[in-house]
From TrEMBL:
Cyclin-like domain span: 91-179
Record keyword DNA-binding present: no
Biological source species: Coffea canephora
Similarity section: Belongs to the cyclin family.
Protein name stated in the entry: Cyclin-like domain-containing protein
SUPFAM superfamilies documented for this protein: Cyclin-like
Keyword field: Cell cycle, Cell division, Cyclin
GO-annotated biological processes: cell division
Transmembrane regions listed in the UniProt entry: none
Length: 348
């Protein structure tokens, strides 16, 4: 019972911390003003090529501060449950975006939070219910950039999860997440480059091309193998792949122009990512097998001493674990039926 979430000794205090909430609100307000979403409209946000180049360089400088820690891909690939848990979480982000009509930037932001948090040495998620709790917190924070609705936590939990969490527990997880991410909530993602890289496309075809590129970017987001690449590399690889299919629509020189701006140490990654993007076009990420997923933890194992300590190697207030019981975590029907079946089989 000594380790759960990221050295959060401050959780021993009241679950609602006024100064942290004020800090969170200020951070969200700042990002709402300075990191507005773009839309896949027929009107470009950039008036000329000079604006594009300046914006691209600005994105390049910014994205380096929002990358997962080194070794994250190796960590994910060496742990099948982590890889499958990540896939399920991001797939749930995508499904939630469709269900709630969210901006796709919200999905990419939430995935960025998830990867950055998971890459921290002391914040590695290992249990199904914990993955879901972190995922809900990631989407909740990203969702708040779009809405001030009071029932966000209830709204995002209506479908696609095996567990339902009390608002107080999610809010604690949000504060832990925010502190672990050092309140840096406005990442440059691969989706951030979409408008920039398609500016010169004929307005009549731009929306169609953006949809094709977006589909590739979402597939790449679901595949943890792409987490080692910078967002600019993924975005350029996607548009280059689409340009192979629609040379008459996309000005290929545009890709070359931006590729020149890529840092020299990223050139090899661009070549590698382009090859992976080509393979991705021939596979269905949505049909990816999640063969290593462990069975959802039952209420007994969730509250067990050894299972609760597996969240990560950080110390936390033990009282948080005591609050994780039936009022805080609800198990949906599928899990209940499974437990009943296991109990019947055990009785036999």
């Amino acid at each position: 019972m000594e380790s759960l979430l990221c050295n959060e000794v401050w959780l021993m205090m009241s679950p609602v911390l006024d100064h942290d909430e004020v800090h969170a609100n200020e951070a969200l307000e700042y990002c709402n003003v300075n990191c507005g979403y773009h839309s896949t409209s027929t009107t470009s946000l950039y008036s000329n090529s000079e604006d594009c180049q300046r914006a691209f360089i600005s994105f390049l400088e910014k994205e380096a501060f929002y990358m997962p820690e080194r070794g994250y891909l190796k960590l994910v690939k060496e742990n099948c449950s982590t890889d499958s848990g990540r896939f399920k979480a991001i797939h749930w982000f995508v499904e939630s975006q469709r269900r709630l009509n969210l901006s796709l930037e919200t999905v990419f932001r939430a995935a960025n939070y998830l990867d950055r948090f998971g890459s921290l040495k002391d914040c590695q998620v290992r249990n199904d219910w914990m993955f879901e709790l972190v995922s809900v917190a990631c989407l909740s924070i990203a969702f708040k950039f779009e809405t001030n609705a009071p029932n966000v936590l209830n709204e995002i939990q209506t479908e696609g999860l095996e567990h339902s969490f009390e608002s107080s527990l999610i809010q604690r997880m949000e504060l832990i997440l925010l502190k672990a991410l050092e309140w840096r909530l406005c990442p440059t993602t691969s989706y951030s480059y979409l408008e920039l890289l398609t500016r010169s496309i004929d307005p009549l075809n731009r929306h169609f091309v953006q949809e094709l590129i977006t589909e590739l970017l979402v597939k790449a987001l679901l595949d943890s193998s792409f987490s080692e690449f910078r967002p600019c590399i993924i975005a350029l690889s996607a548009i280059q792949r689409i340009s192979k299919e629609f040379l008459s629509t996309i000005n290929d020189s545009l890709c070359s122009h931006f590729s020149v701006l890529i840092p020299p140490d990223q050139k090899d990654d661009l070549i590698k990512c382009c090859k992976m993007m080509m393979d991705l076009c021939h596979t269905s990420t949505s049909a990816k097998k999640i063969s290593c997923i462990n069975c959802p933890s039952s209420p007994v194992t969730v509250l067990g001493t050894h299972s609760c300590c597996d969240f990560c190697d950080c110390q936390i207030d033990h009282s948080l674990l005591l609050t994780i019981n039936s009022p805080d975590i609800n198990y949906f029907g599928g899990s209940t039926k499974k437990r009943k079946r296991e109990q019947e089989e055990g009785g036999v």
